[in-house]
Amino acid sequence: MTRQPLTMTNSVLDTLMPMHLLVSACGTIRRAGPTMSKLREGPLAGQAFSTLFTVRRSRRDPTGEESFIPLNQKLHLVFCDPPKTSLKGIAVPVLGSSDILINLSFGLSVVDAVTDYELNSADFAATEMAIEMLYLVEAKSAVLEETKQLNARLQGAKIAAEEQAYTDTLTGLKNRRAMDHVMERMTSSKVRFGLMHIDLDYFKSVNDTYGHAAGDAVLQTVGRILSEETRGDDMAARVGGDEFVLIFNRFTEVSRLVKTAERIIERLEVPTIWEDAQCRISGSIGITTSDFYDTPDVARMLADADAALYLSKDKGRACVSVHDPAVGQEAKGAPLGPPADRAGQQAGRLG
C-alpha cells in the first residue's frame, strides 16, 4: 500500500500549531502561526530567522552539513531582542520542499510569557499541556490572593483586638494590663524611666453632685490632659476609677518630673464644664524613678509611687511627693484647699 504524503492547509497549521514558523532553506521566515505573530510587533514573514532568534546548543545536523538550525532534534531558542523569552521546539524538513517547519512552545516560561504578551487560552493548541498548567497557576494565584487578603483581615482584627484589650474605652488611655506589660518590658530591658501615680482629688464630689455623666466628662478631660503631657514613647494609663499612672521613657530627672507633675495639677484644676455646672477637681501625685533602685522591680516601684501619692494626700492634696528609697519620702509643693474654694487662683503657687 502506497502512503500518500500528508498535506496541511494553513488553517490546519494555525489550529494544530499556533506557534509554528515556516522557514526557507536560506533562513527567511515565510509564514508564522497566529500566536507566534503576537510575540513581536509587525509581521514576521520576510524577516531573517537569525535576526530574531539565537539558537542554543546549535550543532551540525545529521547530514553533517552546517545548518542555520538543527533538524529533527530538540531546539532551545531565545529571542534576540527584549523580552528575551526562551522557547523550545523541533524543526523538521517539509516533504517535497526545501522549507523547514518549526513548531515551538514556551515550556516552563509559559507563565511569564502569558503576562508579557497578554496571551489567553485561545492562543494555544487545544492539546497544549501548558493550558492545564495555566489553569493551575491561575487557581493557585487566586487562592494565594484570597489567603493574603484573609491574613490581612485577620491581622487587622488581631491588632484591633489587642488594642482594645490594652485600652481604656472611656478615656482612650492605656489600661492596667498595658501598664503592667510596659513596666515589665522596661525593667527587664533595663530602660530608665520615671513613674508617676496620680489620684484625682474631689472627684467623688463631682459624681455625687452632678452624676456619673459629669464624672465621665471629667475623666475624658483628664485623659486628654495626660495624653498632652506625655511624649510619643511615654505611656499614660487609667488603672482605676480615678487613678492614673504615667511612665516616662528615659526621663528620670526628679526636678523636671516634679515640674511636669505641678503643671498637670494646674491643668487638672481648670474646671470642666458640664451642662451649666463647673466641675472642679485637682490631683495628688506620687513619683519615683528607676534610677533609685539597683534592680528596679515593678511591684516595689508601684508601691513606692503609691506611698508617695498618699503622702501628698496626707499633706492636704493637690501636691506632688517623691519617693526615694535611699532617703525616704519627700513632699514637694504646698497643698491647697478644695478647688471650689479657690476659683481663679493660679496653681503656680504650688512651687
Q: Any chance you could write out the topology, listing elements then pairs?
A:
Elements lengths: L9 H7 L3 E4 L5 E4 L1 H5 L10 H4 E4 L17 E6 L6 E8 L6 E6 L4 H8 L11 H37 L10 H13 L4 E9 L1 H8 L1 H17 L6 E4 L4 E7 L4 H15 L3 E3 L2 E3 L2 E8 L8 H17 L5 E5 L3 E5 L19
Parallel strand pairs: 12-13
Antiparallel strand pairs: 1-2, 1-6, 3-4, 4-5, 5-6, 7-9, 7-12, 8-9, 10-11, 13-14
Helix pairs in contact: 7-8
Keywords: Nucleotidyltransferase, Transferase
InterPro entries: Diguanylate_Cyclase, GGDEF_dom, HNOB_dom_associated_sf, Nucleotide_cyclase, Rev_trsase/Diguanyl_cyclase
GO molecular function: diguanylate cyclase activity
Key structural traits:
about 350 residues; Alpha-Beta Plaits; 3 domains; 6-stranded mixed β-sheet; disordered C terminus
Sum this structure up briefly.
It comes from Aquimixticola soesokkakensis. The protein is α+β, with helices and mostly antiparallel strands and 351 residues long. The protein has ten helices and 14 strands.
Explain this structure:
The chain is α+β, with helices and mostly antiparallel strands and 351 residues long. The protein has three domains: 118 residues, Haem NO binding associated domain (Beta-Lactamase), CATH 3.30.450; 36 residues; 175 residues, Alpha-Beta Plaits. The chain contains ten helices and 14 strands. A six-stranded antiparallel β-sheet has the order 2-1-6-5-4-3. A six-stranded mixed β-sheet has the order 8-9-7-12-13-14, with helices on both faces. β12, α10 and β13 form a beta-alpha-beta unit. α7 runs antiparallel to α8. The longest helix is centred in the middle third of the chain and has 37 residues. The chain is rod-shaped. The C terminus is likely disordered. It catalyses: 2 GTP = 3',3'-c-di-GMP + 2 diphosphate. Its EC number is 2.7.7.65. This is diguanylate cyclase.
